[in-house]
Amino acid sequence: MRAFSYERAETPEGAVKAAAGHPNAKYIGGGTNLLDLMKLEIETPSHLVDVNHLGLDRIEETPDGGLRIGAQVRNSDLAWDPRVRTRYGVLSRALLAGASGQLRNKATTGGNLLQRTRCYYFYDPAKPCNKRDPGSGCSALDGFNRILAVVGTSPKCIATHPSDMAVAMRALDATVETVSAEGRRAIPIAELHRLPGDHPERDTTLSAGELITHVTLPPPPPGVQIYRKVRDRASYAFALVSVAAVVDTRGGEIRGGRLAFGGLAHKPWRVEAAEQALAGHPASAAANAAADRVLEGAKGFGSNDFKIPLTRQTLAAVLSQAAQA
Q1: DSSP conformational letter for 74
Q2: Alpha helices in 237-279 (DSSP H)
Q3: How far apart are the first and last CA of the chain?
Q4: How far apart are CA 40 and CA 268, in angstroms?
Q5: Where is the signal peptide (predicted)?
Q6: What's the pLDDT at 153?
Q7: Phi, psi for 141 (deg, rounded to 5)
Q8: Helix, coil or strand: residue 124
Q9: Which of 161, 52, 40, 183 is nearest to 110 (CA)?
Q10: Which residues pair with residue 61 across a beta bridge?
């Protein structure tokens, strides 16, 4: 790990100002991903701005019946909040499916959204990786790519986004609030994460020094909420395929639904056309049509070919569960 300086901020605006005063500064909350990256010298910040004392550790009701979540709310606290458990069960279950109890006690809402890929080659400085070292190449394309993307890929990167929480928030149409030197703004979560394209080193649309302060959930949509995660171990493993679903089923027929997928792409993957294919059909008949749209253009790279049929099977199981609820 390389030497760095440290500063504790007391307000969001103060944190932004502190970061602006140093080249290559980073914010640190729980540090559950950043410190690992610093130890491997994948991240080499010259200055750390501690954002644990900004007063962003509360979950508040919004006037329209939603929730506003501070960026420093710990994953465990969010998962077990009674309002989240009863009104946003898909989010609670996604959080509890991620990492370990110790990590969830430390990890934060803002940091979880910004955690970086778990691609093996990204974490191996001896191997070329366009995300870690732009222009060096992508070892995963012809390497061991079991956990990597099958949709939204580019010739420069097939990394996946690792967050379970972000997949559930994508299904719930969350909004991310930020502050930067240019002021405050609200970003629909659909526009926060990006596909790799020609710049896989950029995970999000945030500008340099922009700080996440809150995540707002709109009132919960009608329907059964399900989070199903398929992984290599029963716990402490990232998703091979995950599905966050809110499905409104009446009389055996689907009236509407939302579907977001993890483990498939560089960002939480949601295809609204797939949701339109659900409406007016029984669950058993809708799964294949919806999967066709979710997987349009899907391509495996050898070790991860299995993800394409696995996605179909997982979606069918989720819709069947919703129909029986």
Answers
A1: B
A2: 272-276
A3: 50
A4: 26
A5: none
A6: 98
A7: -55, -45
A8: coil
A9: 52
A10: 67
Taking alpha carbons only, the member of 318, 195, 168, 167 closest to residue 265 is: 195
Q: DSSP per residue over 151-214, as a string?
A: SS-BTTB------HHHHHHHHTT-EEEEEETTEEEEEEGGGTB---TT-TT--BSPPTT-EEEE
SS3 (DSSP) at 307? helix
Q: Tell me the Cα Rg of the chain.
A: 19
Quote the Cα angle for 74-77-78, to 5°.
85
What structural domains and CATH numbers belong to the chain?
A: 5-52 (3.30.43.10), 224-324 (3.30.390.50)
Among 32, 198, 197, which Cα is nearest to 113's?
32
Q: Rounded distance, CA 122 to CA 129, Å? A: 6
Alpha helix ranges (H) inside 21-108: 34-39, 75-80, 82-87, 89-96, 101-106
The span from the CA of 256 to the CA of 265, in Å, is: 24
**Both structure tokens of 70:** 């501070």
Mean pLDDT, consecutive 10-residue stretches, the chain (325 aa), reads 95 98 95 97 97 98 98 98 98 97 97 98 97 98 98 98 98 98 98 98 97 98 97 93 96 92 98 92 89 97 98 96 90
The pair of structure tokens assigned to 261 is: 């997928």
- So what's the pLDDT on residue 247? 96
- Which residues face 26 on adjacent strands? 48
Residues 317, 309: contact at Cβ < 8 Å? no
